[in-house]
Amino acid sequence: MTEKKSAAEEPPRRIDPQLVETLGEIATRLDLSEVEVVQGDLKIRVARQIATAAVALAPVQAAAPLPRPEPAAVPTTGVTAAAHPGTIVSPMVGTAYLRPSPDAACFVETGAQVKAGDKLLLIEAMKTFNEIVAPRAGTLTAVLIEDGQPVEFGQPLVVIE
Question: Within a domain: residue 114?
Answer without folding.
Answer: yes
